[in-house]
Design brief:
Shape: elongated
Oligomer: single chain
Strand order of the largest sheet: 2-1-3-4-5
Order of helices and strands: HHEHEHEHEHEHHHHHHHH
Number of strands: 5
Strand content: 5-15%
Radius of gyration: 26 Å
Number of domains: 2
């Protein structure tokens, strides 16, 4: 081995990179982006869990207990209408209702008081945070009083079918959306770039087919594959992992299929900026990392920093994951998740139009 030849290869490689600034930028920026998103997503505990407080007690004890709650972990809001507050939890606008009935303080003084907790367990991370904070607040109040606290909590569930939901029941919808996004984007991107490098795309362009017809043709083909993929994923989730599915399976399948359609439209879109397979693969982290960390798979969107949360709702899988959890755990049908379906369709239309425009621009170039 001769050092001079090694150095010659090194100079040649660096010289080639100097003429490919896009590759260098992707190599430098992707790890930085990953570290920043990981830090913001996983660098803090669960916070800002929305909880409604209905206090009908005339004594001081209810207020004392509420004051002991961590007002950073729980985003407490006062409510006066108990029925409306419970509807908010059932509709997913809050995670819990903490109800102090009339005579709560008097009951504690006479040997026993009951408070009511209505809990939404469809997201185990959020409901778990509420239960932990309630226990910690009771312990802090007990220490401050220096006397026993004769209070019991009567827990009811907003969605009784999901009261025994496991972590995997709320985790699998996120994994399904992520897997579909990852593999559909990657395979579509590589397939489309491969069509370009092999000359197949150029041969299509000399036919009467327009860019819109080419893109739509690819989307229909990958849409058929997406339908099969969605069926297989749901079958594995239900048969192998025994994941809880309370709502209509067909609506869950529709959400997975729409996620795949969005992903393949994104793949075609970014393929217009990639001249070869290497550049296509380098773009994947900028798509996958935000989806992996910000769409609610591991970290609930509600607990992300307020300035980062809007970015989550610009990611199609965020809507798919929320819709899948609503269908599978809450038992909702299309009449409840129509907004998620509409947003996913809107993303598909937007990305398709951008892909057509990108293909026309690449032809002009």
């Amino acid at each position: 081995m001769r050092p001079t030849r090694v150095l010659a290869v090194t100079r040649k490689t660096l010289s080639a990179l100097r003429h490919d600034p896009r590759t260098v930028a992707l190599m430098l920026l992707a790890p930085i982006m990953a570290m920043l998103i990981f830090g913001f997503a996983f660098g803090s505990e669960t916070k800002h869990v929305p909880v409604l407080v209905v206090n009908e007690d005339q004594g001081p004890l209810a207020g004392q207990l509420v004051s002991q709650l961590d007002h950073v972990a729980l985003d407490l809001s006062n409510a006066t209408d108990l029925a409306a507050a419970r509807d908010d939890v059932r509709e997913g606008r809050a995670v819990a209702v903490l109800h102090f009935p009339a005579g709560f303080s008097a009951g504690a003084s006479s040997g026993g008081a009951h408070l009511d907790l209505l809990l939404d367990t469809t997201n185990s991370q959020l409901s778990g945070a509420v239960v932990r904070e309630m226990a910690a607040a009771a312990q802090r109040l007990l220490q401050s009083r220096g006397a026993p606290l004769p209070v019991t909590t009567d827990v009811t569930y907003a969605h009784p079918e999901a009261k025994d939901a496991r972590f995997i029941d709320s985790f699998v919808p996120g994994i399904m959306a992520f897997a579909v996004t990852l593999f559909t984007t990657l395979l579509t991107l590589l397939a489309f770039v491969g069509e370009r490098t092999t000359g197949t795309l150029d041969r299509l362009r000399v036919t009467p087919a327009t860019e819109a017809e080419i893109v739509l043709g690819y989307e229909i083909a990958f849409g058929v594959i997406a339908a099969v993929q969605a069926t297989l994923l749901l079958a594995v989730a239900i048969l192998l992992y025994h994941v809880l599915v309370v709502g209509p399976v067909l609506v869950a399948a529709l959400l997975v299929i729409l996620t795949a359609i969005d992903a393949q439209a994104i793949g075609i879109l970014i393929s217009a900026a990639a001249q070869r397979e290497g550049q296509a693969v380098q773009m994947i982290p900028f798509i996958i990392l935000p989806v992996f960390l910000l769409s609610g798979i591991f970290v609930p969107v509600e607990t992300l920093p307020s300035w980062l949360r809007p970015l989550s709702y610009l990611l199609p899988p965020t809507w798919a994951i929320q819709g899948l959890r609503d269908v599978m755990l809450r038992g909702w049908g299309l009449e409840h998740v129509w907004l998620h379906v509409a947003v996913l369709l809107g993303f598909a239309l937007l990305f398709t139009l951008l892909a057509i425009a990108g293909l026309r621009r690449s032809r002009a170039a």
